[in-house]
Design brief:
Layout: E1 2-10, H1 13-28, E2 32-38, H2 39-47, E3 53-56, H3 63-73, E4 77-81, H4 91-98, H5 101-106, E5 107-111, H6 115-124, H7 138-141, H8 152-162, E6 165-169, H9 184-190, H10 197-228, E7 231-235, H11 242-249, E8 255-257, H12 263-269, E9 272-275, H13 279-286, E10 291-294, H14 306-309, E11 312-314, H15 317-330, H16 336-349, H17 358-366, E12 374-375, H18 376-386, H19 389-403, H20 405-422, H21 428-440, E13 449-454, E14 457-461
Parallel strand pairs: 1-2, 1-3, 3-4, 4-5, 6-7, 6-9, 7-8, 9-10, 10-11
Antiparallel strand pairs: 1-12, 2-14, 13-14
Length: 467
C-alpha cells in the first residue's frame, strides 16, 4: 500500500491542535500519511525527507530564505494555512506581515479562510485565484455540533472545580510580549517583518490601543468579581508575558490566572466570556456560549473587528456589568434572530461556519496536487531514522555551530520558555481520545493508526486504504 505524505506542523498547541488533528484524520481517509506535531520537529523531518506536501502556518518574507526555498528545492509542494487570517485590522497590513511575495511564489495552494481573506490577498499580492481556494478554517470545524464534544470532558472538569466563574481571554501580546526583548518594533524591523512607514503606523497604533485596553481590563476585572461574588479567570494569550498577569493577580483572592488547556473548553465551562478583538470571541459565538466584547472606544479603527461584531458589545462599566448579570441569570445574550444575523456576517470571514468542513475542502485541494506515493515501510523507516536520538544530536550540533555559541547561549532560556508556553507537549493519549470521540459520534468513518515517531511528533495513516 502506498501513501502520499502531508507534513502538518503545530505552532501554538492550544490554538491549533484539534483543528489540525481533524484535518490529518480526514486526509488519512484519502491515502495520505500525515506527520503531525510540534512545528520544529515536523519542519526538520520534512527538510530531509522524501517529497510530500508541507503546510506552512504563515509566509512572511523572511521564511523564503529561512526554510521554504529549501523545502521547495527538496521536491516538496507547499501550502499555507494561516492561523491569523480572520481578525486582522486591514488587508494591506496583514499581507505585509503574513504574506511575503517571494514565499508566495513557492506556494501551490494558499487556503483562504473566507471571502474577505481571499479578497485581501488577491488585492495586495500577485496570485492566480486557482491557487487561492476558499476553504474556511480548521479551527472552526471543531467548534461545530458533534466535533466540539472533544472539549466536553475537560469543560466538565473545569466547571466542577471552579463554577461559578467568568472568563477573560486577553490578546495583549503587542504591548505585553513574551519573551520581552526590549524594543520589539526595532526587532521586527531587523527581521524585515515591518519595513514601511504604513506598517510602523499600524503597529504603533495597535500597540497603544492594546496598552490602554489592558490597563482598563486590570481596573474592571476586580470590580466585576467583587460585584457578583464569583471568581474571575484570566487566560492570557499564548504569546503574552504571563508573569505580569500573575504578579498583578497576587493582590486578589478571587482572580486566577490560567493558561492550561484550550480556550474553548474554558469558554464551555464559564458563565460568560469577556474579550476585546480576540479570535476566541468568534469561537465562543460558534460554541453558542455567552460572549461579551468590552469595547470602550467603538469608533477606533482597531475596535472594528469581526470577533467584536459577533459578540455582545458593551462600551462602559455599566453595560459590561449588565451583560454579565444577564449571562449569569439566563445563560444567553442573543436572540435566535440576532444569532442568524451575526452568523451571516461571520460567513464572509469564515467559509465553514456552515456547509462542508474546512478539513474536507482542504483535503479535496490536496488531492489535486501532484506528489509521489511511497510505501508504508519506506516512510516509517526513513522517519524513524531521521528522528533518532543520534540524528538529532548531530543535527543540533550542526545548528549550534552555524548560529554561533554566544548567540545561542544568550537566547536559549528565552527561546525555550516561549516554546514551552506555546507548545507544552503532545501525547498519543491526547490524540487518540479526540479521534475516538469523533469516531463514536459517527464523524470519522474509520480510526487512523497513530504512530509515535519521537517526542511531540506523530504519524497518522489508515492501515487499509485503496491503492
Amino acid at each position: 500500500m502506498n501513501y502520499k505524505i502531508f507534513f502538518l506542523p503545530i505552532e501554538t498547541k492550544n490554538r491549533e491542535f484539534l483543528g489540525k488533528l481533524l484535518t490529518a484524520a480526514t486526509a488519512t481517509q484519502d491515502n495520505w500519511m500525515v506527520f503531525l506535531g510540534q512545528a520544529p520537529k515536523v519542519r526538520k523531518t520534512a527538510s530531509r525527507f522524501i517529497p510530500g506536501v508541507y503546510s506552512e502556518i504563515s509566509i512572511p518574507e523572511y521564511k523564503h530564505d529561512a526554510h521554504l526555498l529549501h523545502l521547495s528545492r527538496a521536491g516538496h509542494k507547499i501550502v499555507n494555512i494561516c492561523e491569523e487570517s480572520v481578525t486582522y485590522p486591514e488587508g494591506r497590513d496583514y499581507c505585509d506581515r503574513k504574506v511575503g511575495q517571494k514565499p508566495l511564489k513557492l506556494v501551490d495552494k494558499f487556503f483562504a479562510s473566507g471571502y474577505r481573506h481571499a479578497g485581501d490577498v488577491e488585492a495586495f499580492r500577485s496570485i492566480d485565484t486557482r491557487r487561492l481556494p476558499i476553504t474556511g478554517s480548521p479551527r472552526v470545524d471543531v467548534l461545530r455540533a458533534g466535533y466540539r464534544e472533544a472539549y466536553a470532558s475537560q469543560a466538565r472538569r473545569i466547571r466542577k472545580e471552579l463554577d461559578p466563574f467568568i472568563l477573560i481571554n486577553t490578546n495583549f501580546a503587542r504591548c505585553n510580549p513574551h519573551p520581552n526583548y526590549g524594543n520589539r518594533l526595532a526587532g521586527l524591523k531587523d527581521k524585515k517583518i515591518i519595513s514601511s512607514a504604513h506598517q510602523v503606523k499600524i503597529w504603533q497604533g495597535s500597540h497603544d490601543y492594546k496598552a490602554e485596553l489592558m490597563s482598563g481590563f486590570m481596573k474592571l476585572i476586580p470590580l466585576l468579581a467583587d460585584r457578583y461574588q464569583l471568581k474571575a479567570v484570566i487566560r492570557p494569550h499564548p504569546s503574552e508575558n504571563h508573569d505580569r498577569w500573575h504578579h498583578w493577580a497576587e493582590q486578589y483572592n478571587n482572580i486566577l490566572i490560567k493558561h492550561d488547556g484550550c480556550a474553548n473548553e474554558w469558554m464551555m465551562a464559564a458563565r460568560a466570556t469577556i474579550h476585546n478583538g480576540c479570535t476566541t470571541g468568534l469561537e465562543g459565538f460558534m460554541l453558542e456560549r455567552p460572549v461579551i466584547a468590552y469595547v470602550p472606544d467603538p469608533e477606533n479603527d482597531y475596535s472594528r473587528n469581526i470577533a467584536n461584531e459577533v459578540s455582545h458589545q458593551t462600551h462602559d462599566k455599566e453595560e459590561l456589568f449588565a451583560a454579565v448579570e444577564k449571562s449569569l441569570h439566563s445563560g444567553r445574550l442573543d436572540s435566535a434572530e440576532e444569532r442568524t444575523i451575526k452568523a451571516g456576517k461571520l460567513k464572509h470571514y469564515i467559509e465553514n461556519v456552515d456547509g462542508p468542513l474546512a478539513s474536507e475542502r482542504i483535503v479535496e485541494e490536496l488531492n489535486t496536487i501532484d506528489v509521489p506515493s511511497h510505501s508504508l515501510d519506506d516512510i516509517l523507516r526513513r522517519a524513524r531514522g531521521r528522528n533518532s536520538t543520534k540524528y538529532f544530536f548531530f543535527s543540533a550540533c550542526k545548528d549550534l555551530f552555524k548560529k554561533g555559541l554566544n548567540t545561542v547561549r544568550k537566547s536559549k532560556d528565552s527561546r525555550q520558555a516561549k516554546v514551552l508556553q506555546k507548545f507544552p507537549g503532545l501525547s498519543e493519549k491526547e490524540i487518540m481520545e479526540s479521534l475516538l470521540i469523533w469516531h463514536q459520534q459517527g464523524l470519522l468513518p474509520s480510526m487512523p493508526r497513530v504512530v509515535s515517531i519521537t517526542d511531540n511528533l506523530f504519524c497518522l495513516y489508515q492501515e487499509k486504504v485503496s491503492v
